[in-house]
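Page 37, continued from 36.
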């Protein structure tokens, strides 16, 4: 997974160059053409979101914007690649140049928890994933 992190306040102060949309389209197209892009989306500004914090008995909800955060997640891509090196190679091609960062992280799979989680929990998780994929045409 590639997580786009950026300073939202700085980004909001300067409108994006229209060329970035074309560059992003080329970047996304290259990943689709290579067969590695499973999903990817941008996120709306934090002013349109909320934070649910779990610090006790009851969760607390705070509406955005998230002014206390220096870096926020602004979007993501989920890739199907064979290695961290391949994911980093794709991340290096992203059309960013204004202080953005791409965090590259591996999405966990059920196999990562074998021997740790009870097998019935792993089986139930596999069933849930299959049901979700079926509901969404996957």
């Amino acid at each position: 997974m590639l997580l786009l992190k950026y300073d939202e306040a700085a980004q909001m102060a300067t409108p994006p160059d229209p060329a970035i949309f074309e560059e992003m389209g080329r970047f996304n197209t290259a990943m689709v053409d290579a067969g590695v892009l499973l999903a990817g989306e941008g996120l709306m500004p934090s002013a349109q979101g909320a934070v649910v914090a779990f610090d006790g008995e009851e969760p607390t909800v705070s509406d955005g914007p998230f002014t206390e955060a220096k870096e926020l997640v602004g979007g993501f891509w989920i890739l199907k690649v064979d290695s961290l090196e391949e994911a980093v190679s794709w991340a290096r091609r992203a059309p960013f140049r204004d202080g953005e960062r791409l965090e590259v992280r591996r999405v966990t799979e059920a196999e990562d928890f074998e021997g740790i989680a009870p097998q019935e929990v792993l089986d139930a998780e596999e069933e849930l994933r299959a049901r979700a994929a079926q509901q969404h045409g996957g």
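The chain has a mean pLDDT of 92. Flag for discussion at group meeting. Residues 119-135 form the longest helix (17 residues).
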